[in-house]
Write a sequence for this structure.
């Protein structure tokens, strides 16, 4: 398992980028955690529908996005808000989706990020198709798809990996192995020793990295991205991390896992180790911390406000995006709908 | 007698099933230690062991295909798919294998198994979590398709499904899991698959529904009664076999029919019922057969759910329309 | 003008489509070098290259899911699934992703793609090779579902499907691939999706069908004509959007309707048509609406196929029954 | 790639069984080829529906069955008649299926063989379930599932392999890699160097053998069967062989492959090498060959006669196996059906 930054902030080998970028990404992780904790809190207040927290997975997501170009595709899941945001998806739309608003799935035109996949496993093939579309159209854009350990059990994972390798498309498969698929631990999902070695079945390189290590994740994704962009085909990356929270706000992890495990992983926090590293390089202090936390708080608060101030879809508007133009039967149903709401 | 929610009644049925026959087993995502995302299998892994209540990898086609093999091999699997929206990856196994092995092998091999699928909307769930695809399974020859709307029926139909020599798709209306309580007998009892239930007799119009929409349909009947309209209410309960007799008898009497379901309208099971009425009750019909259904759209997210689901008002309006016709 | 079979007309449409727009591409099992198991893509890989006419691994979910990604990414994929029975492994991709991305993203992302599916029975094929699952796709909001029954329509509808900004499930009746020939114009032309075709005008009874069953339906109309019965014949062509107007106009005129399809009866698309008639034509109806369909069974193997498929005799008998009613 | 018997009949290492059994299996392969060629011939006469020949794959199928116990489950495909027959499925029912008769799918009660799978990939999970059912019921029966190289691209292959390994069931995955999935050559199906190494993705042993080598196939399957029966879990075996005929009688392989390849593989014939071996051990002569060919011919002819003399399903009988008891709507349809045929 590749590691560049130990839980106590020690460097293994060389840092993949400079202190300035490290600070930027540290700040991004703080933003991500702020968003995530706010998401949990808002759900408890009934202001969001079910929420799937990613606390503990910030390095995997922020590190991966940092290795991409701004117009590379990201195809991710319900637990990937940090990754999606880092690639341009606005916080307010991520919140909007969680309030139960379709417009949360509609990022601005220039953002190359698909709405989050709620089905497990079905979205990876889409990234393969996107990467292939770029290849066929002669651009150098690539695609990164993110998914969980549990998703690797789905048949669509297999088909996606196979197609990507066969057509040598520029697709990065980023598995955030967070130890659990709801209540099923990693060991009971599959018998392979690692997820990374599943790449062998597709003749594809597989890399296992410490997923709580910003540097290692960045480096692995950068390596894969360079390969993908230069026509070298896909890569599977297993980022070993941990889901510190419940699966979602509807879940009670105490039914199936030992709280000691959670504590153990809290000690491997992905943000804290970067903080120590920065601090040791004289690039972190309490003041800056307070400043970025305040910024984060403000930005997230603004995002919530934006999301919550969106008026709901008007009567009949739920039908308006079924087709480019509504066919007659939907026109008729739309009239009936509007009538029925009076 | 104990008064139970549908969730508890289903849990009880599974308990009784596991108790009675050592070949019965439960499998699915998170059905074991955590008792299922809706807690329908709560406590059963502890009671019967993890070899009889089995957590599976996240792989719906595998769950159903492996359950099929287990059934052919002599077990009686009750497989849970977490939500109807996640039954689609298993669709090939269900339609190409589960539903066909008896015919393919001319009775030599059979797949007595139950596929439990929480379904329907109304709880503000995420995308894919509010599907009503019952018509798709009803259109698949070789499957029985059952939908309870009361705790009593839920337990009795589930035990009938477990005892059935053929595969049963058992649709559980999520919105009803904890919506109502009623008396549920202890131990084993069966509710016959293939029989509708005339829940309320009436003379003026027949309201036909199933699953969670029974809530609105009942309320609509109440509302109509307040205005002096006597509505007969039929809970279909079993889409396959469909109790055409119960429906045609009622519509022949009332001369008017309103069918209510939350699935999209086009080619929904309501169409089958309307077609049955159009074939068998034409001379008794005094008004067009109306359907009050979900729209031909994706099930909307929380904020717009109310725009989609048939409301009491829409049902009442449709019934009135048949009466004015 | 050239006289072509449906197979050649489809090949021609694909050729014209590939020629016109460099984003159009074809993908599927064996579509390349061998030209598809029905030779619909014959010669196209040679002409346009194997990057535009792509042989895929045997993985239907992958084919559709990857085609979806291609479509979102700006291409115009025409994906072939070898037989409708092999569309089921792709069902989750079709229903959960292809049909929904426009709504999920509120028009931000779209999947303009065509899913070509050879379908239907009558050629004595092996198990799973004679499926008619069109109702399942028709019940899936967000898809258009098209079924040509003539070479002219086949080409025009396929080009309309390729041009369509939304996904189209394009069902190709296997039995018609080489059954009839007719004049087919060169170059690009479109047949509007969503319009039925009144193939033959009549006064006494409306026969409604689509796909390969148009063969029997036409013959039944001839047979009825011999006996002095004037049957109006409607080729539905497009299940979604369904041309309710054409059907209700006809039935309002004739007062009688017989719907013919080869899919199993229960919850087949015939039910939707009967329901539409029961809602909109009640006061014109002079007889029960009848359906002549496949049975609620697995499609039988070669030796018993004739027991399953609606015959001219059954259609004529049903029409007579409506006339006697 | 494991090999015990070279194309020229030379032994590599030791023979896995004695001359008597070798003669029996040689005879079985001759029967299989007789059936197969008859199948092709009958189809050309219009007496069978589409036929999928297995010429060249006899060792893979007969060798595998020989390593099983008589009550082990076999779950195989349209191209596995020899394997199914060797496990007890009567020739006449194999023919009956090909004439288009449902009763071809109904082997006698004691035959533990599922009707052939026509869908590609969907049947392997069934074998996993069967093996698991036996394990749960405490028998020592195991299951073998056979499939092609093409089938490994399907998601269900992945899910079957994963379930088998996770639940440690006694299931043998026998892939007959015959080089082609209809017109798609093995190299374009997947990028992995071998099919066998796909086992790594599931933490399962994977073995690649010369599939035209009766001894090697037997040995590999025996090893896997022993492991399975003793609770050691599943094994993936890749038997490298070749589809010498067309995909089916509807296929024209000249459209996509070089006839030289076919000739090349004819020289690696699985039957011929056993003949040489037997001959070198004084256990083969022309007379015996003529005798078993005559026997085979007679048995196959009798099977055809039986299949063809089966009266077709009577009017309405096509509905009788939809359920154990016909529900009212099917009773009604049955009456309508019988009526309509008058
Ligand atoms: C096809 C499908 N099956 C089941 C589910 C229900 N479900 C949601 S998340 C989940 C577990 C996924 O685990 P993993 O892939 O490890 O991702 P994580 O939630 O741990 O990030 C399941 C079973 C689903 N959303 N989609
Ligand atoms: C699910 C499914 N998809 C497609 C087909 C059509 N088809 C039949 S055989 C075949 C190729 C299978 O190749 P392989 O698994 O290598 O087996 P082989 O025919 O070579 O023995 C295909 C694509 C099918 N029968 N089932
Ligand atoms: Mg996980
Ligand atoms: Mg092959």
């Amino acid at each position: 398992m590749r590691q560049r930054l130990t839980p106590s902030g020690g460097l293994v080998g060389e840092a993949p980028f400079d202190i300035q970028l490290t600070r930027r990404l540290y700040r991004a992780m703080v933003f991500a955690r702020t968003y995530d904790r706010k998401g949990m809190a808002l759900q408890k207040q009934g202001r969001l529908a079910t929420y799937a927290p990613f606390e503990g997975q910030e390095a995997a997501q922020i590190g991966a996005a940092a290795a991409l170009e701004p117009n590379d595709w990201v195809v991710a899941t319900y637990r990937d808000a940090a990754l999606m945001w880092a690639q341009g998806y606005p916080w307010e739309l991520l919140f909007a989706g969680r309030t139960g608003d379709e417009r949360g799935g509609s990022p601005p035109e220039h953002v190359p990020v698909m709405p989050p996949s709620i089905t497990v496993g079905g979205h990876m093939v889409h990234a393969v198709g996107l990467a292939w579309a770029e290849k066929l159209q002669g651009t150098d854009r690539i695609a990164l798809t993110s998914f969980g350990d549990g998703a690797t059990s789905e048949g669509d994972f297999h088909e996606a990996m196979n197609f990507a390798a066969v057509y040598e498309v520029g697709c990065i498969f980023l598995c955030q192995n967070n130890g659990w698929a709801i209540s099923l631990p990693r060991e009971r999902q599959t018998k392979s020793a690692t997820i990374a070695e599943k790449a062998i079945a597709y003749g594809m390189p597989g890399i296992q990295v410490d997923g709580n290590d910003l540097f290692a994740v960045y480096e692995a994704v950068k390596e894969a991205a360079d390969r993908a962009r230069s026509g070298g085909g896909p890569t599977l990356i297993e980022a070993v991390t941990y889901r510190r929270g419940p699966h979602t706000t509807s879940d009670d992890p105490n039914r199936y896992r030992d709280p000691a495990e959670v504590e153990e992983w809290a000690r491997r926090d992905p943000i804290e180790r970067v903080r120590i590293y920065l601090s040791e390089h004289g690039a972190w202090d309490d003041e800056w911390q307070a400043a970025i936390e305040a910024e984060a708080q403000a930005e997230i608060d603004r995002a919530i406000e934006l999301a919550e101030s969106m008026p709901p879809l008007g009567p009949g508007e739920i039908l308006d995006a079924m087709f480019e133009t509504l066919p007659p039967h939907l026109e008729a149903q739309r009239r009936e709908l509007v009538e029925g709401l009076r | 007698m104990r008064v139970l929610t549908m969730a508890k009644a289903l849990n009880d049925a599974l308990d009784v099933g596991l108790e009675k026959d050592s070949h019965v087993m439960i499998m699915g995502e998170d059905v074991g230690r955590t008792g299922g995302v809706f807690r329908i299998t709560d406590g059963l892994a502890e009671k019967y062991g993890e070899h009889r209540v089995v957590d599976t990898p996240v792989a719906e086609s595998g769950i159903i295909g492996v359950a099929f093999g287990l059934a052919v091999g002599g077990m009686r699997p009750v497989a849970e798919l977490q939500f109807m929206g996640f039954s689609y990856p298993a669709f090939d196994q269900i339609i190409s294998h589960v539903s066909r092995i008896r015919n393919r092998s001319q009775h030599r091999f059979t797949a007595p198994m139950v596929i439990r699928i929480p379904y329907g909307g109304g709880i503000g769930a995420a995308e894919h979590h509010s599907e009503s695809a019952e018509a798709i399974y009803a259109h698949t020859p070789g499957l029985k398709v059952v939908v309870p709307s009361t705790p009593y029926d839920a337990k009795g139909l589930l035990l009938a499904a477990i005892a059935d020599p053929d595969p049963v798709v058992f649709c559980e209306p999520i919105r009803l899991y904890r919506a109502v309580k009623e008396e549920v007998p202890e131990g084993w009892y069966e509710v016959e698959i293939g029989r509708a239930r005339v829940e309320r007799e009436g003379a003026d119009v027949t309201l036909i529904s199933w699953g969670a929409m029974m809530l609105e349909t009942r309320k609509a009947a109440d509302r109509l009664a307040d205005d002096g309209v006597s509505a007969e209410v039929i809970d279909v309960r079993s889409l396959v076999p469909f109790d055409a007799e119960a429906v045609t008898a009622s519509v022949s009497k009332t001369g008017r029919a309103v069918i209510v379901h939350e699935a999209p309208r086009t080619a929904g099971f309501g169409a089958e019922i309307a077609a049955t009425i159009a074939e068998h009750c034409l001379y008794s019909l005094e008004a067009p057969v109306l359907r009050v259904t979900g729209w031909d759209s994706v099930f909307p997210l929380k904020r717009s759910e109310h725009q989609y689901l048939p409301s009491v008002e829409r049902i009442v309006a449709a019934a009135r329309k048949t009466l004015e016709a």
Notes: The two ends of chain B are 46 Å apart (CA to CA).
